[in-house]
Structure formats: structure tokens, C-alpha cells
Design a protein that fits this description.
By secondary structure, the protein is α/β, with parallel strands linked by helices. Helices cover 55% and strands 7% of the residues. It has a seven-stranded mixed sheet, with helices on both faces. β5, α5 and β6 form a beta-alpha-beta unit. α8 runs antiparallel to α14. The longest helix has 34 residues. It is globular, with a radius of gyration of 25 Å. The N and C termini lie far apart (86 Å). The model has no long low-confidence stretch (mean pLDDT 96).
Length: 469
């Protein structure tokens, strides 16, 4: 018997994807460097299913249909390169290797070009949705040779999450590293979204004194309206949990240090490289870094004075403002992420389909939200849309919420509660809508100390002034 697809790496993500594929009618041959893990999988979750295990790369190639389709689910970085080196001697021209990990897109570019030169196909596939998504339907963002995508498309479409309209949450992103680039930006938006939610929680909990249980009800209510999303949903669930040891809300006994795997940082770094402003994502990355300075913050809290987080205004007004500020900030965060995708698409010649990207993020992935239906519609109305804030529907939605948005940010600043992402989102909105920014003074300074020249508003050309007589 020949198997439809090979799975290399049978950790949680790998074996869940294998089970997903088998459930959807595709036979799977699995290989893991640790034979014990292969045996545990076959004797456990894969028992009685159309899944087999093999002891070596050569044995894997022997049982797969041609062209061979092989999905690697191994840790990003060196493990991917070593796995490719392990498999490559057993490949034949036309075979398709796929990397479903969180690989850096430039690594995928390098691997794609090197393998193509030897006659092999290589797909970098962003996979979002975590363990549950892998088993029941992730959002998939594949990039690589188009003919390779066509060869694996039936499998990917079958295992992908389905949106409410039944559409599978997968589409071809573009050549080389396009898929992993889109996944990287997805994760950057995810960082921003999580930080925005955390800051709203902090303002209402610490500043307004809203209890954890009341916040749980509040987020659950918000999840029935315009903010409906996976992250709002799980926030409400998290706030309901109590610590079995102390009886306190579990979230209150979790140390306030947020780790990161690097994809958000990659987004910020690459945005600087291509010249795309993403202040909300940057603020989210910086907030996680600041959270890691726990010992310093504890010391600073005892020696540096600031205002007491106390709000004496209308309680319901601030709660309503928080909801509107969160929505407006989320829109600007998506505008930044999609703007980065548009700029990078030109920079790397990816020809990224922004409407399709919004479409496949509607289900399965961590940033899935009802908002994405509206974003998809905006890019369908105008495929050349430069910025989401220029779409009439989104422009009106944000304009109508800006008074509440400003109230929330001003109130947080007045109470001394840090809102790096909320304030960065608002500053981005104000900067983007400003016909004139103070960069004229910055450029004059550059010309003063470095003779960097400047352009004028009243005539064409490049000019330099001898500022010091």
C-alpha cells in the first residue's frame, strides 16, 4: 500500500495533523527520529487508523505515493535544516517537502531556492490554531512553487478550518517564503491584539476596580457583538477560573511575565527593514520585554512615585469607552499588519492576496474574529486599498469611536496605568490622518549637523543650508 502523505515529527502538532488528515480520508506514514515516540503514537491515538509508522527516511520514501508529499513538523531553525539534510538523499526530482513550523521567512526563502535548484519542491506553510486547530482544523498559509501547492491543495483544503460560509481557511500565499511571511505577520497582529486586551483589563481592573468575575461577564458580553473573537472568548473563560489552592481568581496568582517565541519580534524587525509603521505591534513586543524586568519593576515601584490608579468619574462611561477603544485600536492594529503585508508584497515580489488572507484568518487561527469578514469585504470592494482606515466603512467606524478612545487613553495616562499599545494605536491614527507632521524640523536638524539636505514645499529640488555662519 502506498500512503498519500508523510509526516516527519510526531510531537503534539505533528500527530494531531496526522489524525486530522486521516480523518479526512488521507493515509499517513509517520516518521520520528525517536522510535519510541512513533510507537507511542501508533499504539495510542493512531491505533486502528489508516496511519503507519516507519523506522527510517528510506522506509518513508518507499511507502509514499509519487510525487512524495512530506510535511515536516519539527522545531524552527537548525532542526529544519538537519531534517532536510536527512531526507534529501532519498528524494527524487518533483518530490515536495513542506515545513509547517514557525520558521523565519528568510530561512524558508533560502531552503526553497536551494531545493528548487536540485529539482525538489519546497513549501513553507504557516499553521495557526495550536494543538486543537491542528486536530480539528487550522488556518493554513502555504507558500512555495505553485505546482507544489496544486499537488497538496486537496489535502490542505480538507484539513483546514471552515469559516461560517463553509469556505476552507487556506489559500496559496505566493512564491518562496510568502507563506511563512504571512504567518509571521499574523503572529505580530496576535501580539498586538493580546496586548490591547491586557491593557483594557488593566485599566478596568486596577483603575476602575472592576472585579475579575465582573470582567469575565463583560468580556463574554463583548464577545456577542463587534468584538467577537477567539481571544475575547478565551479571555472571558480565563477570568472565570479560580485557583484550587487559594480560591482566588487564577489570573491573579499568575506571575506578570509574558514570554515570547520571537515571531512578534521578527515582525517588528522586518517592518523596520521594509519601512512599514507598526507601532501597535512594536508596543506589544516592548510590553513583553518590560514584563520580563520583574525584579527591576518591583524595586522601581517602591522608589518612584506616580499617581494613584483611581477613577472618580462615571463608571459605566469608562466601561463603554473601553469597549469602543478596544475596537478602534484593533482596527488600527489590523491596518498596520495589512499595510506591512502590502509593502512587503512589493519588496519581496510575493503578490500577496490581502482579501484571501483576511478570508483564511476568519476561522482556525488565533486572531479569528468577526471583524475579519468586514476586512475581507473591504479588500474585495477595493483590491488596491492602501490602508484599511481609508475604507469608508472602517473610517466611519473609527471616527465614531475616537472620542471614547481618547477618553480611555487620557484616563489611563492620568491614572498612571501604562497603555503602550492603546496609545500607540491612537497615535498611529492621528499621525496617519495628519497632513503635516513635525518631520520638517527633524530634517532641518539632520541637515544642520550632517548636511543631509532637504526638500521644500514650494518648489522642486534638493537643498542644503549653511546653518552655522
Amino acid at each position: 500500500m502506498k500512503y498519500k502523505i508523510g509526516m516527519v515529527g510526531l510531537g503534539v502538532m505533528g500527530h494531531n495533523l496526522a489524525l486530522n488528515m486521516e480523518r479526512n480520508g488521507f493515509s499517513v506514514a509517520g516518521y520520528n527520529r525517536d522510535p519510541a515516540r512513533t510507537r507511542s503514537f501508533l499504539d495510542g491515538p493512531a491505533a486502528g487508523k489508516n496511519i503507519t509508522g516507519v523506522p527510517s527516511p528510506a522506509a518513508l520514501m518507499a511507502v509514499l505515493e509519487k510525487p512524495r508529499r512530506i510535511l515536516l513538523m519539527v522545531s524552527a531553525g537548525t532542526p529544519v535544516d538537519s531534517t532536510i539534510a536527512l531526507l534529501k538523499p532519498h528524494l527524487e526530482p518533483g518530490d515536495i517537502l513542506m515545513d509547517g513550523g514557525n520558521s523565519y521567512f528568510l530561512d524558508t526563502e533560502r531552503r526553497n531556492q536551494a531545493l528548487e535548484a536540485e529539482g525538489f519542491n519546497y513549501i513553507g506553510a504557516g499553521v495557526s490554531g495550536g494543538e486543537e486547530g491542528a486536530l480539528w482544523g487550522p488556518s493554513l498559509m502555504p507558500g512555495g512553487q505553485r505546482e507544489a501547492w496544486e499537488a497538496v491543495a486537496p489535502i490542505f483544503r480538507a484539513i483546514a478550518a471552515k469559516a461560517e460560509d463553509g469556505e476552507p481557511c487556506v489559500a496559496y500565499m505566493g512564491p518562496r517564503g510568502a507563506g511563512h511571511y504571512v504567518k509571521m505577520v499574523h503572529n505580530g497582529i496576535e501580539y498586538g491584539d493580546m496586548q490591547l486586551i491586557a491593557e483594557i483589563y488593566d485599566v478596568l481592573h486596577r483603575g476602575l476596580g472592576v472585579s475579575t468575575l465582573e470582567l469575565a461577564d463583560l468580556f463574554a458580553e463583548w464577545n456577542t457583538g463587534e468584538l467577537k473573537s477567539y481571544l475575547i472568548e478565551i479571555t472571558a473563560d480565563i477570568l472565570l477560573h479560580t485557583d484550587p489552592e487559594t480560591g482566588a481568581p487564577l489570573v491573579d496568582v499568575i506571575l506578570d511575565e509574558a514570554a515570547q517565541k520571537g515571531t512578534g519580534k521578527w515582525t517588528s524587525q522586518n517592518a523596520l527593514d521594509v519601512g512599514a509603521p507598526v507601532p501597535t505591534i512594536n508596543a506589544a513586543v516592548e510590553s513583553r520585554i518590560l514584563s520580563g524586568l520583574k525584579a527591576e519593576r518591583v524595586h522601581a515601584s517602591r522608589v518612584i512615585n506616580g499617581p494613584k490608579p483611581e477613577y472618580k468619574g462615571d463608571r459605566q462611561r469608562l466601561i463603554d469607552a473601553a469597549r469602543q477603544a478596544l475596537y478602534a485600536s484593533k482596527v488600527t492594529s489590523y491596518a498596520q499588519g495589512l499595510g506591512l503585508l502590502k509593502i512587503a508584497s512589493n519588496e519581496y515580489q510575493y503578490d500577496l492576496p490581502l482579501s484571501e488572507i483576511a478570508k483564511i484568518w476568519r476561522a482556525g487561527c488565533i486572531i479569528r474574529a468577526s471583524l475579519l469578514d468586514d476586512i475581507m469585504s473591504a479588500y474585495q470592494r477595493d483590491p488596491a486599498l492602501v490602508n484599511l482606515l481609508l475604507d469608508e466603512a472602517f473610517r466611519t467606524a473609527v471616527e465614531n469611536r475616537q472620542q471614547a478612545w481618547r477618553l480611555l487613553v487620557q484616563t489611563a495616562v492620568g491614572m498612571g496605568i501604562p497603555v503602550l499599545a492603546l496609545s500607540a494605536s491612537l497615535a498611529y491614527f492621528d499621525a496617519y490622518r495628519s497632513e503635516r507632521l513635525p518631520a520638517n524640523l527633524t530634517q532641518a536638524q539632520r541637515d544642520y549637523f550632517g548636511a543631509h539636505t532637504y526638500r521644500r514645499t514650494d518648489r522642486e529640488g534638493t537643498f542644503h543650508t549653511e546653518w552655522q555662519k
